[in-house]
Amino acid sequence: MDKGRDLKPHIGIFGRRNNGKSSFINVLVGQEVAIVSEQAGTTTDPVKKSIEIFGIGPVIMVDTAGIDDSGELGKKRVDKTMQVLKTIDCAVLILANNVFGDYEIDLIREFNSFAIPFILIHNKSDIIPILKATKAEIGKTTQTEIIDFSTITPHNLDYVVESLKKTIPQTAYVSKSLIGDIVKKGDYVLLVTPIDSEAPEGRMILPQTMAIRDVLDNHCICIVLRETELTHFFETCNTKPKLVITDSQAFGKVKDLVPEDIMLTGFSIVFSRLKGDFENFIKGAQKISALKDGDKVIIMESCTHRVSCEDIGRFKLPAWIKKYTGKDIDFTIISGMSDLPENIKDYSLLIQCGGCMFTRKQILNRLKPFTDNAVSITNYGMAIAFMNGIFERALQPFFINSETS
After folding, report:
1. What's phi and psi for 268, nearest 5 deg?
2. Beta strand 47-53 with 57-63: parallel, antiparallel or unpaired?
3. Which of 217, 296, 305, 353 has the most CB atoms at less than 10 Å from its CB?
């Protein structure tokens, strides 16, 4: 399993080589989960570990290579360390021996750029405690408290854990409901789940299973069927769903089968509110109408999977966009945590999947370079709803409370 896609809070451990990053993780967890060595540079690539921290709970701890690594190989390690910033909810910067300089200053700037809350640990205090001069120097860059600590004699470990707990954003813990503000107890929610070659054998895909659980958590009644049974359902059942959620690729068919007085939206749109930049996604969908010949569109898949001719991101979505616009569009596909293209400004539009496999922080950080460069962004479901002429209807469930209040 790819731990980078785990939905627990992600904590990144950063610092120079041999400052005790791995030792810090071991002390924090209370067991040896990270390799410790006197040799600088023991940790090469970032290492992710799903662990339990007493007083905090389950988290993903990311042990990184030293930010001062040198040489051609060292630079590659540092690059990978910096890429971790896109995936974490909170950071710990480990200092030692009263050394604080450009490496730490640059890293703190990156923390601030990505809006990553962090704590500072001055390790090896049993050898050299932190000096007032060091604190003063650090104070020129950040007002974040620095905690004097020793992994050999961790007498103030409880204080470190408490500081870390306060620093991790609540949004990293709290999983908001997908539809809790749309439905009420006892409502019927109908989920339309097409089964094609992309569907896993013998089970539901993650967005569908998460939606089912959310419906049940909200004490609603969940009905699940394929789009081929939708007509039969409305012809033979007296039950009127409060909300219908469909796989986005079935919008074209489902929109004509669900009565206009029943709210309709898509799984991808539901997840875009939970995981993505909802407001900018809404604005970006309308960019599709303005695409011109030769425009570049990037399609962002947050997971890697077996590809077939029915793949929505790689085949169906590009085909639908070309048909809708009548233009010759250049598409780039990015999957998982693959590197982003260097020429971001050359793109006219980014279309992000629902993001069920990533945390909200990871999705927003993947989108940030594009929004920073004024590139329009949207979401699979919103793009498909827009091209099917039901954009306003698919968004209406999310604004119904404000309209009626």
Report:
1. -65, -40
2. antiparallel
3. 353
